[in-house]
Specification:
about 20% helix; alpha+beta; two-stranded antiparallel sheet; about 90 residues
Length: about 90
């Protein structure tokens, strides 16, 4: 089952707490790895659990600060991604 926040998570402290909670939950499911990459021409992080893509976090940054984080964990959308040389690319 895929779940999402009903309201956007706003504020440095709340974002960190939510991200830590998600990381703890993921660790229970297997080996977790985070990789920096470029996704849709923007900085992003791909989250892998046991070597499989679990989710992506695309960062919207301005003036050196992260303004928004867009999380995609929908398996139908992630199926189209493959890791290619440090970048996420659409599968053929």
């Amino acid at each position: 089952m895929v779940s999402a926040a009903i309201q956007p998570v706003v504020g440095r402290t709340r974002i960190v707490l939510v991200m830590l909670q998600l990381a703890r939950r993921l660790e229970e499911g297997g080996t977790v790895e985070f990789r920096w990459l470029t996704l849709n021409s923007a900085p992003a992080i791909v989250v892998l659990v046991d070597g499989l893509i679990h989710s992506t976090l695309q960062l919207d940054a301005a003036e050196g600060l992260i303004k928004r984080i867009y999380v995609v964990s929908n398996p139908d959308k992630l199926r189209r991604l493959a890791l290619v040389g440090g970048c996420a690319a659409a599968r053929p």
